[in-house]
Design a protein that fits this description.
By secondary structure, the protein is mainly alpha-helical. The protein contains four helices and no strands. It is extended and about 60 Å long. Keywords: Hydrolase, Protease, Thiol protease. GO terms for molecular function: cysteine-type peptidase activity. This is Xylem cysteine proteinase 1. Pfam families: Inhibitor_I29, Peptidase_C1.
Length: 127
């Protein structure tokens, strides 16, 4: 039983060390500065939570130390004014012409898609 506890603790600490290493790499790459240990620890916990969501992708984003609420607020994704105006909007449905459509269409092949860019807090990318 003691051996099992030691093995589990070792595996946990290994994961914690790996998460901390990834967090420190993230902090350096995205020039993050935290004013207090408490803020650092809170951001590390958020980062770990987000890291476990994207672990399979092996990629980071500059938003990894934000909660969902902080992310939405930063990008102005859903304000009360937008939600209220959206609920008052009339809905229109346009009927499309029916005809032959390709089975697939890739805008990348047309040269119409650019790389994703961070537009900061502008929010126009969602317009």
């Amino acid at each position: 039983a003691v051996l099992l506890v030691v093995a589990c603790t070792s595996a946990f600490l290994g994961r914690e060390d790996e998460d901390m290493f990834k967090f420190m790499k993230f902090v350096k790459e995205h020039n993050r500065e935290y004013q207090t240990f408490e803020e650092f620890h809170a951001k590390f916990e958020i980062f770990k939570s987000n890291l476990h969501k994207v672990d399979d992708h092996e990629s980071f984003s500059p938003f990894m130390d934000m909660t969902e609420t902080q992310f939405q607020a930063r990008l102005n994704l859903e304000t009360e004014a937008i939600a209220e105006s959206r609920s008052k909007m009339e809905r229109y449905t346009l009927s499309a012409k029916r005809g032959e459509l390709p089975t697939s269409f890739d805008w990348r092949e047309q040269g119409a898609v650019a790389a994703i860019k961070d537009q900061g807090q502008c929010g126009s990318c969602w317009a």
